[in-house]
Specification:
This protein is about 35% helix and about 20% strand. The protein is elongated, with a radius of gyration of 28 Å. The two termini are about 50 Å apart. A hairpin with a 5-residue loop joins β15 (about 390-395) and β16. By secondary structure, it is of the alpha+beta class. The protein contains 15 helices and 16 strands. It has an eight-stranded mixed beta sheet. A five-stranded mixed beta sheet has the order 13-12-14-15-16, with helices on both faces. The chain has a three-stranded antiparallel beta sheet with strand order 2-4-3. The chain has helices at about 20-35, 50-55, 60-65, 85-95, 140-155, 170-185, 195-200, 210-215, 230-245, 290-295, 310-315, 340-350, 365-375, 385-390, 410-419; strands spanning about 40, 45, 70, 75-80, 105-110, 125-135, 160-165, 250, 265-270, 280-290, 305-310, 330, 355, 380, 390-395, 405. The longest helix is centred in the N-terminal third of the chain and has 17 residues, at about 20-35. Bound molecules: histidyl-adenosine monophosphate. Histidyl-adenosine monophosphate binds next to β6, β10, β11 and α11. The site of histidyl-adenosine monophosphate has 28 residues, from β6, β10, β11 and α11.
């Protein structure tokens, strides 16, 4: 029978890779607390309507990439392609705004987009993100960008560039859309067929089309920054001043639009500048989305956030990651008569808080020690009968080979003192 495989674009994360994942996830959780963010977990499955209303019907994500299905109760459901819309749904559903004027939440989990698989681009991938709900000041934009940059740098990733832009307020888009329609009107034959359609429905999307003819055609396209109202302009200027105070180097990229329709004012990305990521160089994407709460049925509440792809960070990190190996103890016996003792000693060491691999049956001591060294154990405890009669065991340091007799009562303390 043919062996079954994972779905295209989806991957197992195997035990050997897990320490790297835990390193990234734990650091994210630690830094989230430093910036005042608390974790929130939302379901992987949400109503399709949430993403149509939240992300935008004419975005690539909603148009082409979502895993949507009708369940047995005729509900139209989707696997979440991102976390922001779900967080805002949850914020409204549980009236979280009533508890505090500014809510800071972070999240971590699998997202699903049916994109063409490539290095750093998967159909199930993991995002960690943060959303700051209820603050409109440029200082909150700067803080969120600093959080994202500090996190990436704390991982040891130095080769990055920070790009920012402003998409202005609701009055900016219609004017800018018209300017784009005018700009592309005599270049329609140079745009891909999707972009010809996008030009009618959502011209901003032409700016993030990845087809090479469209990239060429948008050279010298008008800058959205010329269409900002005074308040949005002031907000963007203030943000740039604050980023300098935070000592963050950034580039203003007036053609950056991001792939989701909910953004207003500030948007930003952190790109990896080494060639490790190939064409998938964006590791963090985020921005302000002041209209989303209202669009999903709430009041007008200013919001900003970001999310990063854990796989892309791991590609950037390669082997440059400081992981403590799990310090493991292997318990071995000499013959069948030692079996009960090995179980008792393993049990005692585990209850004392140590990481232990216990045998399920006795084999030759040589074979057991070979297994211990293969498992990466730091120490082996040999529970032979002779020493047991003196209430002792042999403690073997697997690195140096040194062996000493240790009383069973002081075994856990002795191991801990040598770790
Ligand atoms: P996004 O730019 O669509 O933004 O995704 C954020 C990050 O998720 C990307 O920069 C990338 O690292 C990772 N990512 C996206 N798609 C894939 C994929 N197919 N395979 C691997 N990694 C991927 C958002 O999702 C927004 N919700 C961010 C946000 C939060 N904006 C405001 N708050």
């Amino acid at each position: 029978m043919r062996a079954l495989q994972t779905v295209k674009g989806m991957h197992d994360i195997l035990p050997d890779d897990m320490p790297k994942w835990h390193f990234v996830e734990n650091l994210f959780k630690k830094i989230s607390v430093q910036y005042g963010f608390e974790e929130i977990r939302t379901p992987v499955v949400e109503p399709l309507e949430l993403f149509i209303r939240g992300i935008g019907e004419t975005t690539d994500i909603v148009e082409k990439e979502m895993y949507t299905f009708i369940d047995k109760g005729d509900a139209h459901l989707s696997l979440r392609p991102e976390g922001t819309a779900s967080v805002i749904r949850s914020y409204l559903q549980h009236n979280l705004g009533a508890q505090t004027s500014v809510l800071r939440v972070c999240y971590l989990g699998p997202m699903f987009r049916r994109e063409r698989p490539a290095k750093g681009r998967y159909r199930q991938f993991y995002q960690a993100g943060a959303e700051l709900i209820g603050a409109s000041e440029p200082a909150s934009d700067a803080e969120i960008i600093d959080f994202a940059v500090f996190f990436v740098k704390s991982l040891g990733i130095k080769e990055i560039s920070v790009q920012i832009n402003s998409l202005g307020d609701s009055d900016t888009r219609p004017k800018y859309k018209q300017a784009l329609i005018d700009f592309f009107s005599n270049k329609r034959d140079k745009l891909c067929s999707d972009c010809n359609r996008r030009l009618e429905l959502n011209p901003l999307r032409v700016l993030d089309c990845k087809v090479s003819c469209c990239i060429e055609a948008r050279e010298n396209a008008p800058s959205i920054l010329e269409f900002l109202n005074d308040e949005a302009k002031e907000h963007f200027d203030e943000l740039q001043k604050l980023l300098k105070i935070y000592d963050i180097n950034f580039n203003v990229v007036p053609t950056m639009v991001r792939g989701l329709d909910y953004y207003t004012r500030t948007i930003f990305e952190i790109q990896g500048t080494s060639d490790l990521l190939g064409s998938q160089s964006t590791i963090v994407g985020g921005g302000r989305y002041n209209n989303l709460v209202k669009e999903l049925g709430g009041k007008s509440v200013p919001t900003i956030g970001f999310a990063f792809g854990i796989e892309r960070l791991l590609i950037m990190l390669g082997d440059n990651i400081g992981i403590d190996n799990v310090k493991k103890i292997f318990v071995a016996g000499v013959g069948d008569g030692d079996f009960e003792r090995t179980i008792k000693i393993s049990n005692m060491l585990r209850k004392a808080g140590l990481n232990v691999e216990a045998p399920y049956k006795m084999g030759s001591l040589r074979a057991q020690l070979k297994r211990a060294s293969k498992s990466g154990a730091m120490f082996s405890v040999i529970a032979g009968e002779d020493e047991a009669s003196k209430n002792e065991v042999t403690l073997k340091n697997m690195l140096t080979g040194e062996q000493v007799s240790v009383s069973i009562d002081s075994l856990a303390d002795k191991i801990r003192s040598q770790m």
